[in-house]
Each structure stands twice: as C-alpha cells, then as structure tokens.
Design a protein that fits this description.
By secondary structure, the protein is mainly alpha-helical. It contains seven helices and two strands; from the N terminus they run ααααββααα. It has one domain (about 1-200): dinb family like domain (Four Helix Bundle (Hemerythrin (Met), subunit A), Up-down Bundle), CATH 1.20.120.
C-alpha cells in the first residue's frame, strides 16, 4: 500500500508540474479566459484544482478514529447537482484575492506538502473528506481523478492538446471503470475520450453517462 501511495503522489506531481508549466507559458489575459465549466474562468478553475490537491495535506493533518465509509469508487457516488453550488462557492472563495503567481505556487506546492503530511501515516489511516471518512490510500486516487478531469478542462481553455500525464490518466480510467462496473463502451476505447464522456465533458449516447460531474 505504501508503494501505491508513493506512485499516486508521483503521478500527481507529474500532472501538477505539467499544468504549472502550461500556466507559466500562458499570457496574463489567459487567466480571465472562460472555461467549459459554466461561470468558471481559468482563475477559478486553477484555484479549485490547487485547493483540491491541497486537501490531501489538510485532511491528513486530522486523522479520524472511526471506520472509513467510502473508497475510491464510492467516493464519487454523491449528489453532484446538489453540491454544485457549494463547490462553485468554494472555488470562487479560493480565487478571491489570488494572483496568477500565488495560484501557480499553490498548485506547484500542493504535492510536496501532501508528501510531507502523509509521510508518517499508515496507508490505512482514515481521514475526513468532503464526502465521508475514507482511508488515505483510497483518497489519493480521488485526487488523481480530479487532477485529470480538471487538467483537461484547463488544457481545453488554454488551447493545449488534451493529453494528461500517463499516471493520472491510468488511475482515472481505473476509477471510472470501477464506477461503470461493466465493460467500457466500444466507442470509448480511447482513454481520453472515455474520461471526457464519463465526466460529462463530451456527450455520449449511453444513459449511464456521465459517471461523474
């Protein structure tokens, strides 16, 4: 399990580094560019992404003495529509007063902070989360999925190719296949196409989709 956690953090670091480099090369005006998430510009999206990765260190700081109630798959079985307003409010609050430099730094520093926070914890440590108590080793893949999906959102907004780093993509596909609990549709053999459809970023004529929002 420790090796799995280390691999997850390595994958997150690679994705964060890739997105940080993309932001560093973007013009200042790009931070006000709208994204495909209604009402979210790039600033709001990056604030949400940095905050999401920062939750690892925040939650690891307050381990719980109670059983886990979710795993990496069941974590995403929640009322996405009902939570959307709160998610947007938190993202906008995280963006308020932030600058491109501060948000880029927050994204860059989130994974090193996570490594330091989990270094002394067992993978089976139960931590809080926005959904329910969950083991640390099960929570990390939820952050990879968030990084993958929102990394694709960011790449789309900035006109970059839709190419997540390999580790986050592989983990995200595995989690989404767990949610689907059935063979992937033949028309979604491409991993990125599967993620885009499963996350509702591209329409797909299957009543089971999207799997996450």
């Amino acid at each position: 399990m420790r090796q799995e956690m280390d691999a997850a953090l390595d994958a997150l670091a690679a994705e964060a580094d890739d997105l940080t480099a993309l932001l560093a090369a973007a013009p200042a005006a790009a931070w006000q560019q709208p994204t495909r998430l209604p009402g979210w510009d790039v600033t709001t999206l990056v604030a949400h992404l940095a905050r999401g990765l920062g939750r690892i260190a925040a939650y690891a700081a307050t381990p719980l003495d109670e059983p886990a109630r979710r795993d990496r798959v069941s974590y995403f079985r929640y009322d996405a529509a009902g939570m959307a307003g709160d998610v947007t409010a938190r993202a906008r609050e995280a963006a308020r007063g932030a600058t491109p430099a501060s948000l880029t730094a927050a994204l860059r520093d989130a994974v090193p902070a996570a490594r330091a926070a989990v270094a002394g914890l067992a993978p089976t440590t139960v931590i809080p989360s926005a959904i329910a108590p969950i083991m640390l080793v099960e929570y990390l893949p939820t952050r990879l999925l968030e990084a993958c999906v929102h990394g694709l959102d960011l790449r789309q907004a900035l006109g970059a190719p839709p190419v997540p780093t390999p580790g986050v993509l592989a983990s995200t596909v595995a989690t989404l296949e767990g949610l689907l609990a059935a063979p992937r549709p033949a028309g979604l053999a491409d991993d990125v196409a599967f993620v885009e459809a499963a996350a509702g970023r591209q329409p797909y004529p299957d009543p089971r989709f999207p799997l996450v929002a």
